[in-house]
Specification:
alpha/beta, 460 residues, nine-stranded mixed beta sheet
Length: 460
């Protein structure tokens, strides 16, 4: 008999220790070290190789025939764009996002379009008809919620117009009951809101714990793969924005999408962080309204001001959100400081990046900023995290210093180095093409070579 010893291991990364500690020594996560039984070293010596079953022998890759992956459109163009064309039969999709950002509202809209007679099912043709679908009818959808009652979901469905006979609701927190609903309803799409609220009676621990999340996710994914039914799981996020629960959850699913947006703005972004069936650099744009959430196929004008005449301190740039080029206006205000330590206030841009640009302007261009308050912001609440916006920020600050507006047909994008050089950025031709489509005639980029030359070409 193999002798077992007591050990502790981290549920996130697998790090092991001989005694319990509150914080993992490898991934530095708190509360993830749990006790588990570990077999002795002699276990490895007793494990013997087993012959593979008939029909499952390893074969050369050239002899295997690849199966074509068919996507089922959801009826929401921006969501299909992020997913790579729609949902795949048997796929497990994880939606994450902060509370109140609109995850449940978006997924209820997806469920209603699946269940609507002649909705997204008819748009994809007869090949997309799933279990429970009849001629002229929508496909059955099971929406299982552990956070809201069926009455609360019904009220939101009335507001968004999502009342269809093929949409089934269940308010459950028990995993076995949810699996029973899947067997009884036989849906073409399953939505679970959320995976942290379900619990299995066969696993110790409360709902939302690492062990429970692993068991719940694994059971739902097995059901999805076995039935060929796509399942969408909603996941909570921690303070730092990552998905709550064990990291294994993101490895188990096929697609991970993050829904983000500022509560003070109606704009929402859906980003694909992992996708086994499509690209991982796509971004979908949505807008939260009083009747639910609607897609924004062309968000080009959302981040530009509506001023009739040019205003000093503003400069347009083109940011890349995934593979989509979005024009964004950067605004700057420079005022005499009334305190010994001038203020540097930013919104939508990286504060450390702005501080570096101001230092370059003062050292390489001769701008006087050490006794000035500087405010930099973006229009529409969009966040610019890429260095391509450096040149636009610099020109907006220079325009605000001299109170001289830039030409309304000018757009700038380029990375600024500490030496004052303007470096080229990725997708420069795509940025220039989007700017030309919107009517911008003049584009300042890496061809300017230096910030000082860009300032002169902009007329500042």
């Amino acid at each position: 008999m193999v002798k077992t010893t007591s050990a502790y291991a981290c549920t996130e990364c697998g790090w092991q220790t001989s005694k319990w500690v509150g914080r993992c020594g490898e991934c530095q996560q708190w509360g993830t070290v749990e006790e588990r039984a570990r077999a002795g070293a002699s276990l490895a010596r007793t494990t013997r190789a087993a012959a593979p079953p008939a029909g499952r022998e390893a074969r050369p890759i050239t002899e295997l025939v690849g199966a074509a992956v068919s996507h089922r459109p959801t009826g929401i163009g921006e969501l299909d764009r992020v997913l790579g064309g729609g949902v795949v039969p048997g796929a497990a999709i994880l939606f994450s996002g902060e509370p109140g950002v609109g995850k449940s509202t978006l997924l209820l809209d997806v469920a209603s379009r699946f269940a609507a007679p002649g909705g997204s099912a008819s748009a994809a043709g007869p090949a997309v008809a799933g279990p429970g679908a009849s001629a002229g009818a929508g496909r059955r959808v099971l929406y299982a919620s552990g956070e809201e009652s069926t009455g609360q979901i019904r009220m939101r469905a009335e507001r968004t117009g999502a009342l269809f006979d093929e949409l089934f609701l269940a308010s459950e927190t028990d995993l076995a009951t949810v699996l029973g609903h899947i067997e009884a309803v036989d849906p073409a799409l399953v939505i679970v809101d959320s995976v942290q609220t379900l619990a299995s009676a066969e696993v110790e621990g409360s709902a939302g714990g690492p062990a429970q999340v692993r068991e719940v996710a694994a059971a739902l994914i097995r059901a999805a793969k076995g039935r060929g039914t796509p399942v969408i799981l909603v996941g909570h996020v921690t303070k730092d924005g990552s998905v709550a629960g064990p990291r294994l959850l993101e490895h188990l699913v096929d697609v991970v999408c993050h829904f983000e947006g500022d509560r003070r703005s109606s704009l929402r972004f859906l980003r694909s962080l992992k996708n086994r069936y499509g690209p991982t650099d796509e971004v979908g744009c949505f807008e939260m309204t009083d009747r639910g959430i609607s897609e924004v196929p062309d968000p080009s004008g959302l981040f530009l001001s509506r001023a009739a005449a040019p205003v000093s301190g503003t400069c347009a740039t083109v940011a890349m959100e995934g593979r989509r080029a979005l024009p964004v206006e950067v605004q700057a205000l420079v005022a005499k400081s009334a305190t010994p330590n001038p203020r540097r206030v930013t919104s939508g841009v990286d504060p450390s990046r702005v501080a570096m640009i101001l230092a370059v302007l003062e050292r390489r261009v001769g701008a006087r900023l050490h006794d000035q308050d500087v405010y930099v912001s973006t229009v529409g609440g969009v966040k610019l995290g890429e260095p391509a916006a450096d040149l636009a920020i610099a020109l907006a600050v220079l325009s605000a210093i001299g109170d001289r507006p830039l030409p309304h047909d000018l757009v700038a994008f380029g990375e600024i180095s500490l030496a004052g050089e303007v470096r080229p950025v990725v997708a420069g031709s795509q940025r220039a093409g989007e700017a030309a489509r919107l009517g911008y005639v003049r584009a300042l980029d890496a061809a300017c070579e230096t910030v000082d030359r860009a300032r002169r070409e902009a007329g500042l």
